[in-house]
Amino acid sequence: MPAPCPWSQAPGDVLAWQQVDPEQGLSTAEAQRRLKIYGPNRTLARPVLSFWHIFAEEIREPMILLLLAVAAAYFLLGELGEALAVTVIILGIVFIEVGTEFRAKKAIAALQDLNAPTTPVLRQGKVEAINTEDVVPGDILVLQPGNRVPADARLLVSAGLAVDESPLTGESLPVEKHTRPLDPATPLPDRHNMVYQGTVISRGEGLACVVATGLETELGRIVGLTRRAREPRTPLQQFMRELSRVLALVALAFAVLIPFLQFLVAREPWPRAVLTGLSLAFATIPEELPILVTMVLGLGSLKLAREKALVRRLRAAETLGHITTVVTDKTGTLTANRLTLEALWLPGEGELLSPALARQDNAAGELLLAALLTQSPVTALEACDPLEKALAEGGGHLDLPREELLAFYPLNQEQRWVGALRASQAGATLYVKGAAEEVLAMCTGPPTREATAATLAQFAGQGKRVLAVARRFFSSQDLPAGAAAAGQDLTFLGFLIFADSLRPEAAAAVAAVQRAGIKVYLATGDHPEAARSIARQVGIPAEKLLAGAELEQLNPEDWDPFLQETRVLARITPEQKLQLVQALQAKGEIVAMIGDGINDAPALAVAHVGLAMGRQGTDVAREAAGVVLSDDCFSTLATAIRQGRGLLANLQKSVRYYLAVKVALIATMLVPAALGQPAPFSPLMIILLELFMDLAASTAFVIEPPEEPLMERPPRRPGRPFLDRPMVQVIFAGGLLLALAVGLAYQGLEVWWGPAPVPIRQTAAFATWMLGHVLLAYALRTQSLPPYRQGFFSNSVLNLWALGAAAVTLMAVYLTPLQAVLGTGTLPTGAWGLVAGAALLPGLVMLLYRPGH
């Protein structure tokens, strides 16, 4: 479908060109047909996630190449059985590590699919939200504030529409839009009847017909097939990467020192010493640390998604467990946001009227009609805002006059009211509805703002939402030039009273968060009494309250004393929400911010964890946030914090065990080498030990169920390092105890049974390690609770790993073919008592030694 200049054509001509009915939109079948022709509305090529692609990358990793060098060395030395065994183990390790990485990347890819943006379009006469990639030429877009434009489109209706085009043109101010045709030679920045992919609706509403998608859009031509940029590493991922580099140098130093000592002091043949060094380097270099973080964060984020918390950035998943303060809105989080128009209040009446009486009561009818006539054509087509929906339902029985819309004044940051200027026989009528105090300030005549203050406070104290409605008549010669000129000398018509029930689970969720030692602030643009009422119902301290007007008198640097005593802030602006988050962060708090609107985006982006509403949130809010609450519910935040704490705990358990066994292996090999004794493990044994060490850290610990009660503990102290002193103490204590246990079995066999062949002593050391590192894993699977309280069968993967380790140990001791490969032998029956006793040592001691708890 060749594209003429859509900006030079009238809306009707564009609709004819795209063969679409503006009142019906495309049919589902036609949309599918066009999707096959034009392809997905995508400007970035998705990376292909393939198991074999990861396998090809893994086989080229330095550690795997190191193992291949060991296999080659065995082959050159003529030890074909050992070479074959190393090759088999290499394949096993590669498949395990590829499986781990594939699982982590698949989890992250699944999160991206769950977070796929949607777009409201008109299909078959109804507005429906579809995947943005499914938008096709001819679709009728429904444009609303905060939404990102999904494709290039020609405007059909513009109701006060202004668009932020800075992502495309660099223009810093929102561009006002209209529907008039333009000259074909008009440059892109001046095409004010077009909206372009990637730009954002700043204010107003509109309808537009899509004329280009994907790579055919202006943005697509710029981007081309640019590869998708990787998400930057989280602080913990970066820390682990740097830590692994430092520890790799330490491990390499020992991997050189130990073979050197074996050759010089223990008189080991140099080929075997070199093989030991290569195997030791492979087993002790902590190359798994960065992937462990990705694994835990990726799988944890997928689990959070099942709990209705969609993680958009891994950084947010990492921080959830650290949150110390939550800043939440009222509507839609603590309340259900299912508004109903409960009553009408007329000046002078002193009583409430049902909306159903609007047909019988002239004043009530005028009030409700005026409110309905403030709606833009887009809202009239499909009311998406809960308040507009409630108004449409409450006034659905009235017949609206067909009055031409001359101008529309949308809600924005500067004005908390919406107005529509409509043509009338005498000229025009301006209809206005909005925040009661602001609309009353624009009115002349009774009642005054002061006279209605008590009435407003009464409704707000009951948790009601109140809108004021007003109007003004203009002659055809005296039409207002803009919102500032229109918004004065209005006639007050009355109040609309909306009811919004508290979410049934809100109070319990707030209590759960507060029990976890987290402070909760309620920050809303609503009336102070409404905020106080809701705060009291959910258990947020509301004795003291700060209003936005009071905050304006203070510098944000001076907020601290007030924030110590106050948890409820009302009638605050989006800028004040941002300043609130920054003020709390300046105190050292880890702040979670919940928001839904375009003006919440700065605070969401600045907060340590920004949480946006999934149902009623704008595209801009969702893009600024790290987590999207798909059910718009505060209780989901409580669940997410609990999961985040469990995720952090599992990562700590995984890392401390992983590093503890690395310490144990180095100590086990270093001491005999320094004493001039043969190595406790052969090179093949070392490689096999590494296989089981990685399996435990990468698969068993990451799915450990959380230790209860997670939400009864205070949050982790801000600034506390991941590798804190108690964790380092556990790593070295557990590692040295395991090394001591292996040393006892290795040396004790000769002490108690007399001179024993080296293979038998190595077998005792190998069996002690295999059993001891299993028992150490069970001891370290909990941080504060004893393992029996956690339940021995609550982690099936850990149990399977333990059974596998025990089975391999028995086979290595008693199966002749495996003995020949590993260099093991059959242990004397009595030696098993020594092995079992030594293996119990690290697990039992670490059950009793719990630093930091």
Descriptive overview:
This protein has 853 residues and is an alpha+beta fold. The chain has four domains: 122 residues, Calcium-transporting ATPase, cytoplasmic transduction domain A (Distorted Sandwich); 263 residues, Calcium-transporting ATPase, transmembrane domain; 158 residues, 3-Layer(aba) Sandwich (Rossmann fold); 160 residues, Calcium-transporting ATPase, cytoplasmic domain N. Helix content is 49%, strand content 15%. The protein is built from 32 helices and 22 strands. The strands form three sheets. Strands 8-22-21-20-9-17-19-18 form an eight-stranded mixed beta sheet, sandwiched between helices. Helix 5 runs parallel beside helix 10. The longest helix is centred in the last third of the chain and has 41 residues. It is elongated, with a radius of gyration of 34 Å.
Number of strands: 22
- Radius of gyration (CA) equals 34 Å
Q: For the residues shown, what is the average pLDDT?
A: 83
| Helical content class | 40-55%
CATH fold-type name of the largest domain: Calcium-transporting ATPase, transmembrane domain
Uncertain residue ranges: 224-230
Q: What is the beta-strand fraction?
A: 5-15%
CATH superfamily of the largest domain: Calcium-transporting ATPase, transmembrane domain
The major sheet is characterized as:
8 strands, mixed
Characterize the quaternary organization of these chains.
single chain
Q: So, CATH architecture of the largest domain?
A: Up-down Bundle
Subcellular location: Endomembrane system
Domain Cation-transporting P-type ATPase N-terminal: 5-79
Pfam families: Cation_ATPase_C (PF00689), Cation_ATPase_N (PF00690), E1-E2_ATPase (PF00122), Hydrolase (PF00702)
GO cellular component, one term: plasma membrane
